Amino acid sequence: MDKYKVLIGLEMHCEISETNTKVFSSAENSYKDEPNSNVRPVDLGFPGTLPVVNKEAVKKALMASIILNCKQPEFIYFERKNYYYPDLPKGFQITQETKPAPVGIYGELEYECNGEMKKARINNIHLEEDAASTDHYSRYSTIDYNRAGVPLLELVTYPDFRSADEAVAFLETMRRIYQYAGISEADSRKGQVRCDVNVSIMDKDLDETKEENWGTKVEIKNVNSFSGVRDAINYEIERQIEAKENGTYDEMEQQTRRWDEASMTTIYMRGKVDAIDYKYFVEPNIPKFKLAESWVEEIRKSIPVLANERKHTYIEEYGLSNYDATILVKEKSISDFYEETIKLGADPKTSSNWMTTVILGHLNKYELEIKDIYLTPEYLVELINLVEKGDISSKQSKEVFYKILEDKKSPSEIVKSLGMKQIGDEDTLRPMIVKIIEEHLDLIEEYRKGRNVFDFFVGQVMKQTRGQANPSLTAKIIKEEIDKR
Amino acid sequence: MAKFTEEMVIDYADKLLIGLTDEEVKMVLDEFEVIDKNISLVNEIPGIEKVEPMTHCLDDFIYELREDVVEESTPIDDILANCDSYLNREVKVPKVVE
Amino acid sequence: MKYMTKSIEELHALLKEGKVTSKELIKESLERSHEVQEKYNAFVTILDDAKEVEVTDNLLSGIPYGIKDNYSTKGILSTGSSNTLKDYVPFFTATSIENLEKAGAVAVNKTVLDEFGMGGTGTTGHTGTVLNPWDKERMCAGSSAGSACAVAAGVYPYATGSDTGDSIRKPAAYCGIVGYKPTYGMISRYGLFPFASSLDHAGVLSRNVKDAAIVIDNMKGIDKNDMTTWDSKDVHLYESIDGKVEDKKLCYIKEICDIENYPNASLELKEHLENFNKALEKCKKLGMEVEEVSVDKTLLNALASVYVVISCAEATSNMSNLTGIIFGPRGEGDNYIDMMKNYRTAGFSPLIKRRFVIGSYVLQADNKDRYFHNAQRVRRLLVDTWNKLFEKYDAVILPVGSGPAKLLDGSKTVLEEDDTTALEEHLQIGNFGGFPSITIPDGFVSNLPVGLNITGKCYDDANVLNIAYALESVMDYKDQIAKEVK
After folding, report:
1. Are residues A30 and A94 in the same domain?
2. Which superfamily is assigned to C8-247+397-408+416-473 in CATH?
3. What are the chain A neighbours of B70 within 8 Å (beta carbons)?
4. How many CB pairs under 8 A join A and C?
5. Is C349 tagged catalytic?
6. Is residue A397 part of a domain?
7. Mean of per-residue pLDDT scores for chain C
8. Do B45 and C381 touch (CB under 8 A)?
9. How many Cβ contacts (< 8 angstroms) between chains A and B?
10. From C78, C228, C364, residue closest to A287, measured CB to CB
């Protein structure tokens, strides 16, 4: 590894999930269990049907283009990518391949990898349509066209990543951008994100800014999770280094491989000579659309606050650690929840502690999303306030938290039903403590000799209050009463 | 640019998922010769490379993009009415090997 | 009985006066359909159960018409004259046909075309050759062969057509009738089976200019399902025809019309051009200025090849949806590739298959610039040339083809070249630029009808129709019905 440099480029496909309709058809854009239940004639390629471009999909694509600091085209238009496959009903995919068609070209994005800021250059980002989904059985396959025509954004980077870590960190950044900008859920479990990765290695002492120094490019198709991307890259680097070491590297041709999740290997698909000629040409059914400067500006202004900005606020204004802030912005739903609690008056640090420890711990343990549990920002704030007012102890609050989820009740209801309310007023506690101390005056003597009698008194108070005495107040009164004698 | 050969005609036809008879292959090449000759003349038009290819009839066309409003899905009976092979609600094909 | 030879205006008046009923018209039209099918093989489907409709103030209400079989019609077999769709019954109707239905028009049959509109002979449809009603040994031309034949033979006053190169306007000339394709995007293409989308136009075949205007008024309109359509609600073609043409200016092109271009001209070609010149004289008598202009011969010579390159490229892609998976008869095969290939090989006629290969070749990455993009560049040069002419002239007037309908025997579907290429193919310029373009009959050569064409600038349909109407009015070929001359 020390002898080589690695060049990695990414093609990231992400479905735009946040539109009502598909990109070229007014069928609903949503995942449905029932096959073929959101399709229009054009999604099935019936003769005479025509694509009609969804304004909202273009808007979201342009927003991504702006965020990636790309140049937007003067005219938006589309092209056909022609090939035959059973999941492609028209026999071509409508896409944007040739510049200047794409919604964005030549951009760059800063991202953080292991605490360091890096920059990746974007070749282009374009809007296209997804294919149908196919189920395979032992002797036949079945096709469900619900996914056919779902808007898809394809992002193509330059080979600017030097490690699997960088590539994955970039992808994570992009995923957050799509989520925070309201473009997509970007959920790879739903198959919304798919990647192609290209990997090549070159001798370490050569200048990587010169293309002629680059090694043979190997493209790996259809990697459907970020962990898969990491594994595929690392596998491919090893494979290529081995070829260098055993002298077979020069025989290696430019090729396309696919990532096989089961064997955790890449498998040869085709070489350069077998590359498919997709016969791209401009889609004649979609007139060139003049992109108004004013619309681009309007979209630019409507970009929501993204993860990095939020993180900045958390650190600078709320005084959170970089570590906690990073965790909070990782998922938009978590960050939104957190911000809601702040709006409701929670102390940012306290709320952050709850989020990063108890809540995320629970979600991760059971692989849940925040929307899946019965906790609302209002309830969390209520819970925090109960502790702060001293109504319940912080230990009790954890118990209340799990009870909220279990019983689906509000924090105050839980506290009431468990009879948990803390005794926090001095007028109740002091006479009780005075009485206990007077019953055990011998211990005061021991105390003066240096024995720790504190825990005993606290224990007695807890016993009499069935654990509901406010611990810190109890301790304070005990100390005062002992010192008086 | 490679010359258009019989092998290429057969290869293209194959990729287009159509079969051609020997006679048809020859006819393609004959027709193509006419086109090629004319395109050669076109290539000699001064400044041709600077002309922007015309992809649509109406260049200056102004129109609105579609509003994002859902229309109802085509009923399953209509979808499958002309399909010769399906299983429940899905279209069935010979096993697609990846 | 003998209503189906009348014009739309006449029929509407008769219906309104109660002298005839829609039911009677439909009955006559269906009977005539069967006769014409017997003699000339013009139809894929005859709709024997066609129902009469209420006669309203709409000129088309209650009157029978024909639909070219590449328009999608709900519940009615729609084949595109191809074996690939020989059993296809769509569940939706083309927007333009829906518009005619709303007007009260009654479809009585679906007409034969060259497979998917590709071809100009009327010989490549899956139900066989359409014969010319003036002479059964001759072709109707295509691709709207069945529609042209039926309108000329008096089955009904009009039928829809589609026009990618000249598919309405050439058969109209060969059958002695009117063929009109309006400006691109005036009529929705939704539900029209595509051949080459950037060139495809919907349109009509009729026996006079006003009828054509009435039909297009009812077919047209912006359509949310076709992004290339535009709002034409302020366009009223029929109402705008007034026959006033005194200040109009026409031009014709020397490189196409001058007999000197054709040293080996046949007698028919000579007569055809002489006939055209007579029509020009009539234009002048109507008070129009007519001038000869000259255009670059290189562009004209490249015309046919440019058309083939663009149309084949778009066609090969447009017809990639024909795999037999969701519709069409399933092909045999143990794997999906064999299955699709068997379906496509059996379903498409040889002509289409050859064109697919050419279309595929010109789109290959290595060839695309030389063939496809250069063809698109010449398309622009030709369109620019014509638009320049339209700066000075209201319309370009030219003869259609090199004479009357060609003999079927020995007819060719192969692209060949001779000195009449530009004469035969200039109508394609109307498709390159989306120009409104109309063919009207202008006389007879060898006892067979011949036609001329008038093409104007985009969105100027009313002007083009008005000129055609004025010229039609001073010639004797309006409303003519084919009579077999042999």
Report:
1. yes
2. Amidase signature (AS) domain (3.90.1300.10)
3. 20-21, 26-28
4. 102
5. no
6. yes
7. 96
8. yes
9. 110
10. C228
Q: Would you call B94 helix, strand, or coil by DSSP?
A: strand
- Chain B residues with beta carbon closer than 8 angstroms to that of A28: 70, 73
pLDDT for the residue numbered C353: 93
The ipTM value here is 0.96
The verdict on a CB contact (< 8 Å) between C85 and A47 is: yes
Q: Which residues of B touch A52 (CB under 8 A)?
A: 66
Q: Are residues A221 and A90 in the same domain?
A: yes
* Residue A191 and residue A272 in one domain: yes
Quote the CA–CA distance of A108 and A124 in Å, as a whole number.
Answer: 10
C234 pLDDT higher than 60: yes
Q: Are A92 and A46 in a shared domain?
A: yes
pLDDT tens for residues C360-374? Answer: 999 999 999 999 999
Cβ-Cβ contacts under 8 Å, A140 against chain B: 87, 92-95
Among the ranges given (A417-426, C252-261, C439-448), the one the predictor scored with the smallest mean pLDDT: A417-426
pLDDT of B19 over the 60 cut: yes
Alpha-helical segments (H) within C286-408: 297-318, 336-347, 350-363, 374-392
What is residue C412's predicted lDDT score, i.e. its pLDDT? Answer: 66
pLDDT band of residue C270 (cuts 50, 70, 90) is: very high
Please tell me if residue A36 touches chain C, with a CB cutoff of 8 Å.
Answer: no
The distance of B98 to chain C (nearest Cα, Å) reads 12
Under a CB-based contact definition with an 8 Å cutoff, are residues C197 and C359 in contact? no
Active site residue C143: yes
Are A45 and C326 an interchain contact pair (Cβ–Cβ within 8 Å)? yes
- Would you say the pTM of this structure is higher than 0.95? no
Chain B residues near residue A26 by CB distance under 8 angstroms = 66, 69-71
Q: Rounded to whole angstroms, how far apart are CA atoms A414 and C118? A: 76
Q: Are residues A110 and A192 in the same domain?
A: yes
**Structural domain boundaries in chain B:** 1-69
A213-259 pLDDT, tens per residue? 999 999 999 899 999 999 999 999 999 999 999 999 988 999 999 99
Residues A194 and A231 grouped into a single domain: yes
pLDDT at C416: 64
- How close does chain A come to C479, measured CA to CA in Å? 32
> Cβ B96–A141 below 8 Å, yes or no?
yes
A238: tokens are 């090893």
Task: Using CB atoms, list chains with 3+ pairs below 8 Å to chain C.
Answer: A, B
Please give the Cα distance from A358 to A361 (Å, whole number): 5
Asked if the structure places residue A315 within a domain, the reply is no
Asked if residue A235 and residue A268 are part of one domain, the reply reads: yes
Could you tell me if A387 and A441 lie in one domain?
no
Tens digit of pLDDT for each residue in A404-423? Answer: 999 999 998 888 888 777 77
Q: Which of C167, C232, C349, C402 is catalytic?
A: C167
pLDDT(C64) > 80: yes
Q: Which B residues in the span 38-97 are in contact with C, Cβ-Cβ below 8 Å?
A: 38-39, 41-45, 48-49, 51-58, 61, 63, 66, 74, 78-79, 81-85, 91, 93-97
Is A283's pLDDT higher than 70?
yes
Range of the domain at A386: 321-417
- Reported as a pLDDT band with limits 50, 70 and 90, residue C414 is low
Known catalytic residue at C167 = yes
